[in-house]
Amino acid sequence: MAIFKRMSLKQGNTSRTNAAELSLRASIYPLCLVTVLFFLWGFSYGLLDTLNKHFQVSLGINRARSAGLQAAYFGAYPLASLGHANWILRHYGFKPVFIWGLCLYGVGALVAWPCILHRSFGGFCAAIFIIGNGLGSLETAANPYITICGPPRYAELRINISQAFNGVGTVIAPVLGSYVFFKNTASGADATQSLTNVQWVYLAIACFVFALAIVFYFSPIPEITDADMAFQAEETHAGTDDVSFWKQYRLFHAAFAQFCYTGAQVAIAGYFINYVTETRPNTSASLGAQFLAGAQGAFAMGRFTGVGIMKFVKPRWVFLIYLTGCIIFIAPAITQRGNTGMAMLYITLFFESICFPTIVALGMRGLGKYSKRGSGFIVGGVCGGAIVPPILGAVADMHNSTAIAMSVPLGFFIAAWSYALCVNLVDYYRIPADKLGAAKIGIKNSGNDEEGVRGEPEKVGIEHTESGSEEIKEVGKM
After folding, report:
1. Cβ atoms of residues 203 and 113 within 8 Å
2. Distance (Å, rounded) from C-alpha 287 to C-alpha 469?
3. In a domain, 109, yes or no
4. Structural domain contains residue 362
5. Bridge partners of 471?
6. Which domain of life does the UniProt lineage start with (predicted)?
7. Would residue 472 count as lying in a domain?
8. Whole-number Å distance between alpha carbons of 59 and 218
C-alpha cells in the first residue's frame, strides 16, 4: 500500500517547487511521456477526417450532416477546457487530468463499439463527444505542461516538437483508413464489414489508453504550481498577473485566434477527401485518403521545419510567416482544380503546422499565476473545429462544390491573422513574449554571453546557504 500513498494525486497549488527551474535534462522524461498523448489525439483527429467521408459513403449521409463528427468532437473541448478538466487542473494538478482524460477517451472508444455495430451515426457522434471530452482534458493539461516544463525560452520549440508527433498520428490514421475503412465501401455486406473494421480499431484504442493511464499513475511527473509560474513571471519581469484575470486581453485575443485558426484547419482536413474526389479526375475515396495522408505528412514536415527555424528566428515572426502562408495558398485552392488545387492544399497544411502550438505558447506568456486558468481558454478555442466545418459543409452542399466552400476557412485564417500581427507589432503583446523568450531560468551558463538574447545566459537556481536554507539567486553576469 505504500506505493499508492506515494502516488497520491492530491497536489498543492500555492507552494513553490523546483519544477519552476527544471533544466533540459531533468525535463526529458516527463516531456517524452506527455508527448505520447500528442500522438494519440493526432491519431484520433486523423481518424475523424477519414471517417467523415467514410460515413458519407457507407451510411448515405450528406456533407453537412457528416460534419456532425467534427461538431461532436470539438464541441466537447470547451466543456473540458473551461469546465471539468480545468477545475481538476487548478485544484489537483496535471497528473490527475492526464489520467482523467485517458479514462474518458477509453470509455468513449468502448461506447463507439455498439454504435458502429448498429450503424447508428447519432450514437457514434455521442461516443465521439465522450472521446472529445477526454482529448479536450488531455489538451487542457498537456499543452500548458509542455510549454512550462523546462526552460521558458524554449517553450515554443518544445511544444512544436511534441505537436510534431501529433502530425505523425494524423499521417498514420488516413493510411489506416485507406486500407481498412475504404477497402470495401459498396453497399450491403461489404459496407457492414468495413464498419466492423472500424469498431476493432476503437477497441484497440480503448485497451491502449487504459494501459497508458496506469503508466501515468505510477510515473513521477513533476507538478508545476501557480506559485511556480508566478515566480517565473516575476523573475523575468514579464508578468502581467498584477491585474485581474479578466483584464488579460492578450490571452483572450489568443483564444479568439485559436478559435478561428483551429476551425479553418479542421474544416480543410475534414473535407480534404471530398475536395480531391470532386476536383481531381479518377480519384476514389480510398485514393483520396492516401492523398490526405500525404497532406498530413506535409503538415508534420512543416512542424519539424518550423522548430529548426525557431532556433534562429523569434517564434512570433515564424508564426506570422506561416499563418500568412496559409492565407496565400488556400486562396488559389478555391478556383484551381486537379493536381494544382490539391498542391495548394498540401502547401496550406505545411504552413498550418506550427500555428496551433505557437498560439498556445505565445498566449500563455506572462500569465504567471493565471497560467492554468488561462490555458483553458486557449484550448477552449479549439471549439472552432465544431463551428467552421458545418459551415463549410453547408456552403459545399449549397453550391455543390467543396472547392468554392474553401472560401470559408480563408475568412477564418484572415481573422486569426490579427493576433499574429499584434504579437509582432504591438508592444503590449510583444514585450512579454520577448522577455520570457530570453529567460535565464533552467539554463546553465556556457560562458558565451556575447550572443545576447539567443545566447546561453546565466542560470537562476537554488543556492544553499551556510545555514542550510534555500535562497533563489541569480548566478553569472550582472
Report:
1. yes
2. 66
3. yes
4. yes
5. 463
6. Eukaryota
7. no
8. 43
Of 186, 402, 385, 180, residue with least CA distance to 293: 180
Pick from 114, 48, 107: nearest CA to 75: 48
| Cβ pair 160, 37 in contact under 8 A | no
pTM for the predicted model, two decimal places? 0.73
HSE at residue 24, side-chain half, CA atoms within 13 A, is 10
Q: Which residues contact 152 (CB under 8 A, 6 or more apart)?
A: 232, 236, 436, 437, 439, 441, 442
Phi, psi of 473 (to 5 degrees): -130, 155
Residues 6+ apart with CB under 8 A from 122: none
Q: With a cut of 50, say whether residue 412 has pLDDT above it.
A: yes
Using the structure block, give the residue that is written with the C-alpha cell 485559436: 258
CB 232 within 8 Å of CB 368: yes
Q: What is the dihedral of CA 89, 92, 95, 97, to 10 degrees?
A: -40
Q: What is the DSSP letter of 222?
A: P
Flag whether pLDDT at 298 surpasses 50.
Answer: yes
Among 273, 382, 268, 277, smallest CA distance to 50 is for 273
Instruction: Give the containing element (helix H, strand E) for 290.
Output: helix 285-310
How many domains are there within the chain?
Answer: 1
Identify the CATH number of the domain in which residue 86 sits: 1.20.1250.20
Which phi and psi (to 5°) does residue 316 adopt? -65, -35
Q: Which H or E element spans position 56?
A: helix 28-59
- The one-letter amino acid code at 261 reads Y
Distance between CA atoms of 314 and 328, rounded to whole angstroms?
Answer: 22
Domain-embedded: residue 97: yes
Residue with cell 474526389: 277
Q: Nine-digit cell at 67? A: 460534419
**Which residue, among 424, 385, 384, 388, has the nearest Cα to 250 in the 3D structure?**
424
Query: What percentage of the chain's residues is helix, strand, coil (to nearest 5)?
Result: 75, 5, 20
Range of the domain at 225: 21-437
Q: Are 50 and 177 in contact (CB under 8 A)?
A: yes
pLDDT in tens, 152-191: 777 778 888 887 787 777 777 767 766 665 555 444 445 5
Contact of 105 with 134, CB cutoff 8 Å? yes
pLDDT of residue 408: 95
Backbone angles phi, psi at 88, to 5 degrees: -65, -40
Rounded mean pLDDT, 49-65: 69
Q: Which helix (H) or strand (E) is 144 found in, with range? A: helix 121-148
Cα–Cα dist 158/402, whole Å:
36
pLDDT tens digits, 447-468: 443 333 333 333 434 344 444 4
- Comparing 403 with 63, which gets the higher pLDDT? 403
pLDDT digits (tens, 9 = 90+) for 80-91: 988 999 899 888
Instruction: Output DSSP code: residue 450.
Output: G
Give me 327's grid cell. Answer: 492565407
The amino acid present at 242, given as its one-letter code, is D
Grid coordinates given for 363: 498566449
Phi and psi, residue 158, nearest 5°: -60, -50
Structure-block grid coordinates of residue 272? 480534404
